[in-house]
Amino acid sequence: MSTMRISTAGLYAQGLQGMLQQQARVARTQQELVSQNKLQRAADDPAAMARAQRLDHALTQLQQQDRNATLVEHRLRSQESALSDVGTQLNRARELAIQANSGGMSAEDRKSVAVELRAVRAELLAIANRDDGNGRRLFSGSRDGVIPFADNAGGVTYAGDDGHNRVEVAPDQWVADGNPGSEVFLRVRTGDGLVRGGAAAGNTGTGVLQSSAIADHSAWGGAPLRVEFTDADTWRVLDGAGTELATGAYTDGMTLQAAGVQLTLTGAPAAGDAFTIAPAPVRDIFATLDGLAAALEAPVATGTERARRDNLVGAAIGDLATAQDHMLALRSTTGSRLAALDTALDARSAGDLTLTQSLSELRDVDFAEAASRLSLQLTALEAAQKTMLSVQRMSLFDRM
User: Fold this and answer.
1) 3-state DSSP call for residue 364?
2) Residue-wise pLDDT tens digits, 330-359
3) Beta bridge pairs of residue 44
4) Which helix (H) or strand (E) element contains residue 261?
């Protein structure tokens, strides 16, 4: 028969170790209740801790996307306001052009209109250089810190670029915070947006182009055409290579139709006069206003000069109407982006709720369970302490 000896020191050490372990359990449970977080150390549950960190990172990204959306919304609303102001100025310019195109205005009246048109142009330039209230220009593209437009002797120059600042406003959802100034003010379609008609600069008659349009897209083919008068009452249509496509007789106020296009002319063109119709080019809005003001300021002494002015003013009226449509289209695009921000807000809210719930399941303490566990642990600790005290009082002399 063998016996096992337990020293008094070993007995005390074993009892002390048990109490320390129980105290550690009590302290951990108390810490969980105080912090309301049951993941105190990675060693306790490495997988849960790693998942919680990933969820924290995802929530941080959502918060950043929320801040991004706030900034983008501010810039888009600022752009929408600026485009509205541009539309107001263009509407005024078109009203002035129509007013100046009437036959009852004197030369001085037209010069006064030109002065107001130049004021409209200056206001448009100020809008084009407007900032968003945070030190960034609205229409400089992706080049922050530059004043996008400058007024030089030869016209307006652009120092921005064609870039779009695309910002993440929800997971995998990006929204541009505006349009570059080159797109808003410089590349503006002229004519009716599809074609633009005009009178040749060297015309000597009094013919005025009242309107031009596509009558049949399939018959036109998209190539520039030239209506040339072989004499005062006979016209022919030529393509870009000089091939004659159609001919006809002219009477004042008639609409010419040939090769898929139509032009309405008034007045008396002279032999050799010509009118063109071609795909509408782009032009900056400042140049359009400059040309209109210059046409109104030019002296008019003959019927030919009057017809030249009327052709320039009539073309500018059409260009301004198309520019107005251009701004409305940009406002519509801006509105679509603002609507996308609303959708992104819903996505962020749903994502935040899901992530928060998942994180809560990993971290949040069940107070009822933790309080019950703490009570049991305290009871066990108290029992261990009493046992240790009893052991300390034991002696061999008690057995004698």
Assistant:
1) strand
2) 999 999 999 999 999 999 899 888 887 876
3) none
4) strand 261-266
